[in-house]
Amino acid sequence: MKFDRKLFNWSAWIVVVLTYIVPYQIDGLAMKCGFPLRFWKIYINNTSSSSLLNSSSLNLIELLINILIAYLIISFIYKLYIKQKNK
C-alpha cells in the first residue's frame, strides 16, 4: 500500500474535528475526548487559577492510532471509489 500524504492530512483533520463533535465521556474527575480512542483528557478543577494547559493531558500514541484508523478507512473508501469510477 502506497502512503498518501493528502489522505493522511485529511485523516488528521477529521480526527481533530471529531474531538469537538463527538460527545465526551466523564470519568470521575476528568472529561475524556476523542473518537474512537479517548486521547485527550481534561481534568475538572473548580479553582480559577488553573488554565487549559495545566488541566489537560494529551496521549499522543492514542492520537496517532486514531489518525491511522481514519487513514485506513478513508484510503479503503477512496480505493473503492476509484475502482467504481473506472468501471
Describe what this molecule looks like in 3D.
This protein has helices at residues 5-21, 60-86, and strands at residues 25-27, 30-33, 40-43, 56-58. By secondary structure, it is an alpha+beta fold. It has one domain. Strands 1-2-3-4 form a four-stranded antiparallel β-sheet, with no helix packed on it. A hairpin with a 6-residue loop joins strand 2 and strand 3 (40-43).
Low-pLDDT residue intervals, each spanning 5 or more residues? none
Major sheet characteristics: 4 strands, antiparallel
Q: Output the radius of gyration.
A: 17 Å
Q: Numbering strands along the chain, what is their spatial order in the largest sheet?
A: 1-2-3-4
Helix content: 40-55%
Count of alpha and pi helical runs: 2
* Average pLDDT, all residues: 87
Terminal CA distance reads 21 Å
Output the helix-strand order: HEEEEH
Strand percent estimate: 15-25%
The domain count comes to 1
Number of strands: 4
Structural class: alpha+beta
Shape: elongated
Question: Short description, anyone?
Answer:
By secondary structure, this protein is an alpha+beta fold. It has helices at residues 5-21, 60-86; strands at residues 25-27, 30-33, 40-43, 56-58.
Explain the layout of strands and helices:
Elements: H1 5-21, E1 25-27, E2 30-33, E3 40-43, E4 56-58, H2 60-86
Antiparallel strand pairs: 1-2, 2-3, 3-4
Helix pairs in contact: 1-2
Tags for this model:
87 residues; 2 helices; elongated; 16% strand; four-stranded antiparallel sheet
